From TrEMBL:
Name recorded for this polypeptide: LegC family aminotransferase
UniProt-listed PANTHER family: BLR5990 PROTEIN (PTHR30244:SF30), TRANSAMINASE (PTHR30244)
Statement: the UniProt record of this protein carries the keyword Transferase: yes
Family according to the record: Belongs to the DegT/DnrJ/EryC1 family.
Organism lineage: Bacteria, Bacillati, Bacillota, Negativicutes, Selenomonadales
Length: 393
């Protein structure tokens, strides 16, 4: 008998992917020129209700370009989250700037109360310039974790009060939007100064590897695109007025992306339906519960989080994950804290309480768009059995 295996999160190519990729190959347009790149950008801009989007090589490239454009320079300070994927923070170091880690709230996104407290109590503010230990605080990186949305109303107010740029890392939240409040109708990534998206293999849509960046000013997006193409001034002559990067998306990636964009609304509906099913099946289970998404948003519900009841289950994440792996259920722990990784161990942290709390409690469970109802029932059954076995140890 074939044993069952339920992967954590795999790509879904049920649409026009092969057709468009073949087309790009047949036309010979595989690199950083070609019609699919423009189509991908237009499709993203239309979906996000924004004027201009630049497609690039990765979410990390999008974040780095935003950091450059925000004017982050060596010695500057950038406020960042501790509990997320490290790619959100590494671009700070690419610019030889200094990260300061601010705690998250119960949405796993940056806590606006602590952000404001840090600016008010740990920094000086004069001549419209916020400074921490004498160094300019230039930007804050706000990550919309797992498809949730940070409290953007509060964060934008703080950014305005202290004149800092907001870089939204919406790599996990493509399609999440506010349905209530001052930003009703606004999509994750279109509220701050910059918005970054990723189309890596496990994201809600994929181009293999890829990303995109938008900004609240269309001319700024044009400049980001310019920087992403080696800051090349025109097609025929090698004139470069700035230091550029090789960060442009390729036509092959974009061909995949255009097909994926056609399916995005359906992918989101499936993520939501599957999340709701998990919610029902875990309802009343005392050793773990599903973490919700903000009520004032329509969330893409990209990744599902089960909070483990640590009063009852003492086993390590590694033990839990290994036990589930043996049952054919692929899970993973939420990230290790970035401020505990070797390159970041000496950086300033500010009132970290929730981030370490969730770091040892959150288990991510399978969330592929093509997961079946039977798979979900199997996952829940196995997770319950494993947690119950550990609780009785
Ligand atoms: C995936 C991800 C990134 C990086 O995107 P890549 O396309 O892999 O470079 C950045 N930040 C977060 C929060 C992510 O999940």
């Amino acid at each position: 008998m074939m044993s069952r295996f339920v992967p954590l999160s795999i790509p879904n190519f049920e649409g026009n992917e092969k057709k468009y990729v073949n087309d790009a190959v047949e036309q010979g347009w595989v690199s950083t020129g070609g019609a699919y790149i423009k189509k991908m950008e237009a499709s993203l801009a239309e979906f996000l209700h924004t004027d201009n989007v630049a497609a690039c090589q990765s979410g990390t490239a999008a974040l780095h370009l935003s950091m450059v454009e925000a004017g982050v320079r060596p010695g500057d300070v950038v406020l960042v989250p501790p509990l997320t994927f490290i790619a959100a923070v590494n671009p700070v170091k690419y610019q030889f700037a200094t990260p300061v880690f601010i705690d998250c709230d119960d949405s796993f996104c940056m806590d606006p109360v602590k952000l404001r407290d840090f600016c008010a109590n740990e920094c000086s503010f004069a001549n419209n310039q916020l400074k921490y230990q004498g160094n300019p605080v230039k930007a804050v990186v706000v990550v919309h974790v797992f498809g949730n949305m940070a409290d953007m109303a509060a964060i934008m107010e703080i950014a305005r009060d202290y004149n800092i740029k907001v870089i939204e890392d919406a790599t996990e939240a493509l399609g999440t939007r506010y349905i209530d409040g001052v930003y009703a109708g606004k999509y994750a990534g279109t509220i701050g100064d910059f918005g970054c998206y990723s189309f890596n293999g496990n994201k809600i849509i994929t181009t293999g590897g890829g990303g995109a960046v938008t900004a609240n000013d269309s001319k700024v997006v044009d400049h980001l695109r310019y920087l992403s193409t080696q800051a090349k001034n025109d097609v025929h002559y090698y004139i470069h007025n700035e230091i550029g990067y090789n960060y442009r998306m390729t036509n092959l990636q974009a061909a995949l992306g255009v097909a994926q964009m056609e399916e995005l609304p359906e992918f989101i509906r499936r993520k939501q339906a599957n999340y709701n099913l998990y919610g029902q099946l875990f309802d009343g289970f005392e050793l773990g519960h599903m973490i919700g998404f903000r009520e004032d948003t329509y969330s893409n519900m990209w990744f599902y989080s089960l909070e483990i009841n640590r009063d009852k289950v003492k086993a390590s994440m590694r033990e839990i994950i290994t036990a589930l792996e043996e049952k054919g259920v692929q899970t993973r722990a939420i990230w290790g804290l970035i401020n505990e990784q070797i390159p970041y161990q000496h950086e300033k942290t500010y009132q970290l309480e929730k981030a370490p709390y969730y770091a040892e409690r959150i288990l991510n469970i399978p969330s592929s768009t093509q997961i079946t109802k039977e798979d979900i029932e199997y996952v829940v059954e196995q997770v319950k059995a494993v947690l119950e076995a550990f609780a009785h140890e």
